[in-house]
Amino acid sequence: MADTKRALILGSGFSKAVFPDSMPTVTDLRPLLRQIEGLSVAPYDSLADKPELLLSYLAQNQPWKEPSEGLSDQGLFVQVQETLAEYIAACEARAFLRPTPGWASGLIEHLHGARTSVITLNYDTVVERIVHRLKWGRPEGTWPREYDLYNLPLSALRLRAAGTWGKTEVATFHLIKLHGSINWYYSGVEGFPGEQVYYRAVNSNAPASDDWGGKFVTDGQIKRLSKDKVPLIIPPVAEKSRFYENRTVRMLWTTARKALAEAEEVVCVGYSLPETDLTMKLFLQAFARPKKVMIVNIEPPDAEEGQQMLRRYREAFPGVEVDGRTFMCEGAVEKMAEYMLT
Fold this sequence. Notes:
By secondary structure, this protein is of the alpha/beta class. It is 38% helix and 12% strand.
């Protein structure tokens, strides 16, 4: 593929393409949410089939909510965050019992070499875990860890019970997780503008086995360090959401803004740009200035869902060439990866 200034946007379809039998899409989360006590009654029952809309409803202090309802919704939101994180972690554990597909490993190698900006709306740690797998056999300090990918002032959970930590930084691609991550933690409180966000290292084949080494060797010991924290999972809500008051989260979005403003080509992988993600649509309209957008999705362009997706992308990238033919097909993500590596 020609040497082009490029940015990738990843949705849940990317992780699903890497491990199709294990990783969930947003649609797969519907039965899980229906099992949570309290979500089977109105008004939540009508939203349970739309996970992102449900998260947005619970997270925002809607003007029609009574004070007690707002507090109850805040508690439900934290419960949903924890449930989603546990479920996605279990899916990852099953997924990484298998080898990483060669095309996925090759793509990560390419992103590292090209220093490509990767903007992801996913909560999982599939990209980080593939990076970890690829480090074996390489000299220390020559291959990145998740801290290098994040390029953020996140603090390791281990440091809550130990001294300062330093290591050699490795230049690599930036993984910009706009909606948070199952291995990022915060207090879960209503307002947290200056709060330190912590992360759990991704250095094994399963989230429950991830650890910084040394004496912190069990899942239980790590969990003791995060007893007063919950996973930082951010719903696709409006800009005034409490999540966007946090300085670290805001830095994610300003970093993504710079990457999109500089990109000549934006490749959207497994992300359908749903109507509920109004923030992302407005963000792309305001700051993305590519010459070309490539959609990588299993939905064919002539099908109704494919046509609706193309419409949403053309609205988000007005006046930009949107390629909805080359990689809107079965095996789209693998074909895109193979194309990038040629």
